[in-house]
Amino acid sequence: MTTASTTLLVVERAHRGAVETQFSDELYFAHALHRQSGGLDVLLRGPAAGYALDTDPLPAPTGSRGTALPLADPRRSLRTLLAEGAGVWVERADLAAFGAGAPARLVPGVRLATQEDEAPDWSAYDRIWFF
């Protein structure tokens, strides 16, 4: 947990990246909450664990006139959260869906949460929000 954080945001569902969310994603929203509340930590679980994987950006789909359609980029938002001091964890068990090597491909700064290792202490937070 970061020292100023009083909120833990648990993100469990990943959005499929459709055009209707092209300007915002869950972690972009988390970034705004982090800035406005003075601190926020994030735990990625379930399909959202994939946000923690360091991958190349996917090419944007093209629109009807051949122009690229901008898409939300949760990994960019995740990097912004980390750069601004948010604590970010990902559940090790949920990374299994992304292959055996997934824990070695994490965005730098993301920590693994397991029963044996460091994980956010839920009792230390004033608020726990689920997305």
Notable features of this structure?
single chain, 5 strands, 3 helices
Plain-language structure description:
This protein has 131 residues and is an alpha/beta fold. The protein is built from 3 helices and 5 strands. The longest helix has 12 residues, at 26-37.
Helix and strand element order: EHEHEHEE
Helix content: 10-25%
How much is the radius of gyration in Å? 15 Å
Give the assembly state of these chains. single chain
Discrete helix count: 3
> pLDDT below 50 for ≥5 consecutive residues: which ranges?
none
Strand runs, count: 5
| Mean pLDDT over all positions | 81
Largest sheet: 5 strands, parallel
Strand content: 15-25%
The structure class reads alpha/beta
Strand order across the largest sheet: 4-3-2-1-5
Morphology? globular
Distance between the termini: 19 Å
Per-chain topology:
Elements: E1 7-11, H1 26-37, E2 41-44, H2 74-83, E3 88-91, H3 92-95, E4 111-113, E5 127-130
Parallel strand pairs: 1-2, 1-5, 2-3, 3-4
Helix pairs in contact: 1-2
Task: Offer a concise description of the structure.
The protein has 131 residues and is α/β, with parallel strands linked by helices. The chain has 3 helices and 5 strands; from the N terminus they run E-H-E-H-E-H-E-E. Strand 2 (41-44), helix 2 and strand 3 form a beta-alpha-beta unit.
